[in-house]
Please model this.
Amino acid sequence: MPAFNIPTRWTDDNRRTDVSGTLDWRPDERFGLRYNLYQSRYEKERSVTAIPWRDLGFDNRDQTDAGGRDVILTETINDLLATWSPAAEHTLAAVAQYRDGDDRWHGGAFIQHEWQASERLDLVYGARYDEASVGEDSTTVKAGGVYALTEASRLRFNYAQGFKVPENRDYDSNHINPRGMPMLGAHVSDPSVGKTPHDLKPERSETWELGLLGRIGGGRYELTAFHTDIRDRVERVREQPLDTEYITFRNVGEARIRGLEGLLSLPVTRTVHADLSGTWVDAENRNTGKTLSNSPDITAVAGLNWAPDDRQFWQVRVRHVGQRYLDADNTERDSSYTVADLTASFQPRHWDNLELYGGIDNLFDANNDSSLLADPGRFYRVGLRYSLR
Model:
């Protein structure tokens, strides 16, 4: 007989190791070559166990683990960038990238031309080719520019095509989510619930942007309108071919995302700076008319930065995230929430290459009772960064 409303203990033990190295070669001011190698290893150990395990008749706590998940993810990224400026008003860039991780790879090559067409007009355009182990390839283009309306204002315009390979979790997820529902990736097979493997196509998109930016007082502002059309959007969907309902990932067809972005950054005093940004988004699945999952209608950030000297930096930031749906059918929704974060960094005197940094996310431990997935919790961060230069 199933039991409900049993208090549980959720434990996550996450460890990430990142290593990167860069080689630069600039034989002259016009030509540059840079190679970057980045490797990452991420380990997760998760357990979700019942607190009153003795009352439920179990011999130990581990027997009640209903959401355990042990994962090791690795990724290696190779980037090669070449730049050439044959004249002051022209810059050519070429990029080659190869990503390899967890039996999947993604390669791409990109070429771009930046051209100062006149004293008022700067243009940039380019093309990219992508190929992935999922059996898909794509050639995409982008073009844009900035036009100086006055000395203090600019008009920015941009068009870009996109190609996005599904994430590893979309293929391989195989665990119980906080609501007790199985989450099974596209390639996962589970006959007990009737889940069979299926394929996913990469997402393809077209984006148009038009923006106004400039200076105001001692600060700056920016306002941008955008519109994106997406084909083969990947979304979380609920399925129930047998008795048990589960969540998986599928291409849901065509989608449209449009909205407005705004930014205002102003100095308050010589050492204090204020930033305010916000985004309004209208995201729709054009096949069903429903709102796209994981697309908050409103997001906003207000920050106050204090740098009393060149050795330390403090920031208080308040974030608001509007309501969003967690699935393509719009049956599971998270309410909006607002959290405050504190960040600080210090550079000890006589240690120019060393930086100590840390912070507290969700400083006041704000709660969101709409779902377990929405509660941001309180997190503490501390670290040390050393640069060789």
Q: What stands out?
A: The chain has one helix and 23 strands.
